[in-house]
Each structure stands twice: as C-alpha cells, then as structure tokens.
Design brief:
By secondary structure, the protein is of the alpha/beta class. The chain has two domains: 20-180, P-loop containing nucleotide triphosphate hydrolases (Rossmann fold, 3-Layer(aba) Sandwich), CATH 3.40.50.300; 227-329. It has helices at residues 3-13, 21-31, 51-63, 84-90, 109-119, 139-151, 170-173, 186-193, 205-212, 216-223, 228-238, 242-256, 260-280, 287-305, 307-329; strands at 38-44, 97-100, 127-131, 156-162, 177-180. Strands 2-3-4-1-5 form a five-stranded parallel sheet, sandwiched between helices. Strand 3 (127-131), helix 6 (139-151) and strand 4 (156-162) form a beta-alpha-beta unit. The radius of gyration is 22 Å and the shape is elongated.
Length: 332
C-alpha cells in the first residue's frame, strides 16, 4: 500500500468509525468486566476492513481514562485526532504502551525480544500491547510472542490483528478472545467514500463498492491508482485473442505478480469474474466446465487465505489462474 493510500485512509477514518458497532459494544462490555486481570484480544477480518483503526481507537479510549458505562456508544471510543492522547500514541510516548507494526518497523525477532524486555518492567498503570498484522510475524517471532502472552502480569491488555485467526500458532489462538470483523455493508462503504470528490473518482462508486467486497482500504487503494492499472490490463487480457493470450499473460505476470496488495486485488478480480460467469451460466451447460469453474474458485479462495504462498510463487500461480480462467470464460 502506497504512502498516499495510507494517508487517504487516515483522512477518511479521522474522527470516524464505519461499521463494527456490535464489535465495539462487545469490547466495551468485556473491558468493563473488572473481575478480569488481563486480556488477550484478536481482531480478524479481510484486509482494509478496519482492524488496525478500531484497535487504535480502543487503545486511545483506554489511555484517555474515559468513563465507560452500560450506555456507552460507539462515539465514546472516538477521540479527536488533535487530542494529546492521539499525539502520544502516534509518537509512542506512553511508558505503558508498546506497539509492533509495519509503521514501527519492528515486525521481527528483535522487535519481539524488545517487547519481552519491556514487559518485564513493573508498572502501576495498565500495560497495553498492540501487535498489528500478527500473521506477518514468522514462526520464531510467534513463538517468542507466546512467551509474552504466557508471562504477562495482571493489568495487561494485548490487542492483535490478523486477516485470519488460523494463520497464527494454535497456542496463540487458544489464548485469545477473537472478534471477527465482517466486510462492511454497502451503506458503510458509501459513508466511508462519501468524502471523495466525484471529480477525483475514476471508477463508478457502485462498481468500486462491488469490487472491493466490503473493504474500505481496497476501495481507497483502487481510487489512488495503486492497483487500477493492473485491473484495467486484466480486463483487456481476458478479452484478448487466443493467439496473443499466452505471451500477454506471461508479460502481465512478470509485471504485476509482486506485493501483498497486488496479490489481494488480483485474486479478488478473479473471484469476481468467476461469480459473473456462474451467474450468467445457462442451465444444461456441460458439467465438466462447471466442475472446472468450481475447482478454480476453491483454489483462489485457498490462496486468499494464505497470501504468503503467492509471495513465494506469485508469477507461476498468477499464470495458472489466468490460463484456467481464460479457458473457462472462452468455453474452451
């Protein structure tokens, strides 16, 4: 994700939260359970759905020492971005707050070891640990993180995010209270994108929402042009003559099969094309073709669950999917 997209996501999320109100209420109720002495929370969901944003909102809420009552609303966890708490969290200025994230540049064994050392210090206030995109930590890091979960003292809250809970070590997952953030509704997506000028929008908003599948981050990334050229080339490629397809597909794979953001958008595009094909399929069409379509759909969903596989074999997997999809759509 480009710096421009990250900034635009921050601007759209400023002093706002789109969707997930039921999750917020559950978190508030859990936090008010004073019988608990420590917490391990996991927020899971597709990329761009708001896991990191909601986590940081709740962290600021805790640090601000706001009153939490049974009638607290979603708005009670939203602090103004100009607040002192927001500034101190952003600059990592709280002694009782530790963050591991891409932004901090410490998603490695050194960062986890520093966390272990920090966690040994005794504090009177609640300790708050935030680990973003936990699935990006390798096995060694996750094993070291498990030690943090096992040895955290009383008055410690650990908040993690991951696209899927089962991408983490089972021993981490078993110690976590997981909340799954569902894809945003059309209404929430429209609200999130409402601040975008129509003149700046190169894609029809309704088409954008449909393609983004409930991910505000994906929608903004497309608008910023990070992946739009790839999508445009895919549409041209899939309609190209058979004699040109193979060489064009190889060139496409060489150009675009890199980076998690590209992987996600490529797979989302492929799923969308398959769904469109299935909807338009006439009853009585050959069983063999439908069987190939469903098999490809299953393969793509599996790849979406484990993006790291694409990072290792991106180009060959892209090509395999494109060839199968092309033959299905051309009824070859």
């Amino acid at each position: 994700m480009s710096a421009k997209t990250e900034q635009n996501i921050k601007d759209i999320n400023k002093n706002s939260l789109y969707g997930h109100m039921d999750i917020v209420q559950d978190m508030l109720r859990d936090w008010r359970n004073t019988e608990k002495v420590n917490y391990v929370w996991l927020l899971s969901g597709i990329s761009g759905v708001g896991k990191s944003h909601l986590s940081r909102l709740f962290i600021k809420y805790i640090l601000s020492s706001q009153e939490a009552t049974e009638t607290s609303s979603t708005a009670s966890i939203i602090l103004d971005d100009e607040s002192i708490v927001h500034s101190k969290v952003s600059t990592n200025s709280y002694l009782n707050y530790y963050e591991i994230s891409k932004e901090r540049g410490n998603q490695n064994i050194s960062g986890v070891r520093d966390l272990l050392e920090w966690n040994m210090v005794k504090l009177e206030d609640w300790k708050i640990i935030f680990i973003d995109s936990t699935e990006d930590l390798n096995k060694s890091c996750q094993n070291a993180l498990l030690k943090v979960l096992e040895e955290s003292s009383v008055k410690t809250i650990i908040i993690m995010t991951s696209e899927r809970g089962d991408m983490l070590l089972p021993t981490i997952l078993s110690r976590s209270r997981e909340w799954h953030l569902s894809p945003l509704s059309t209404t929430d997506m429209q609200a999130g994108l409402s601040s975008i000028s129509k003149e700046d929008c190169v894609i029809d908003i309704n088409e954008l929402i449909s393609f983004s599948e409930g991910s505000l981050g994906t929608a903004i990334s497309l608008l910023d042009g990070d992946t739009l050229p790839m999508i445009e080339e895919l549409e041209v490629l899939i309609d190209s003559p058979t004699k040109d397809f193979n060489i064009n597909a190889l060139n496409f794979c060489s150009k675009y099969a890199k980076g998690k953001e590209m992987h996600r958008e490529f797979l989302s595009w492929a799923v969308k094309k398959i769904r469109e094909d299935l909807i338009s399929t006439q009853s009585g069409e050959e069983v063999e073709r439908l069987s190939r379509t469903y098999e490809l759909y299953k393969d793509i969903i599996d790849y979406k669950k484990s993006i790291t596989v694409l990072s290792l074999k991106g180009s060959s997997i892209y090509y395999e999917i494109l060839v199968k999809l092309y033959n299905i759509l051309k009824k070859n």
